[in-house]
Amino acid sequence: xxxxxxxxxPQVARSLLMGETPQPERFEVVSIxxxxxxxxxxxxxxxxxxxxxxxxxxxxxxxDAIIQAMALFKVETVGDAYLAVSNLRLPQPDTHARLLxxxxxxxxxxxxxxxxxxxxxxxxxxxxxxxxxxxxxVGSVVGMLNRRYCLFGDSVNxxxxxxxWVPPPCGGCVFRVL
Length: 178
Description:
The chain has helices spanning about 5, 10-15, 40-45, 50-70, 95-110, 155-165; strands at about 25-35, 75-80, 80-85, 130-140, 150.
């Protein structure tokens, strides 16, 4: 299976494989998950670049496995930020919010069981902040180099802002409000 086929929506992958520019697509209601690692900047100062990459690979691999098991869609990762959605790749009109909230609980569990450094237990385990939001987005592939599928809209920004409001080291306290 080609990389484009497993990382993009099927219609987007088909367009790219045919040499066409994919058309932007509006999704009226998706649930959006945004997380980041608490203290990431400090971790980068304490660890070697390879160790940071290893940490993020171990964490993201766990989140990716949960995404696949729950039939959700991973949009992208940038540094310590992880963006995923429900009700986008597969229609989930009646369950998308619940599914993404379940994913968020599992992601927090996965993070808190992931050692920052396998050989330095004094550093502890990862803590993530999570923001969830539902709303409309537009998805498309943008740019000409290193093309990737992106989501745009205030709903994405709101999910990111919600994650910033979670007080560390609380991690998952926001879920008690849902």
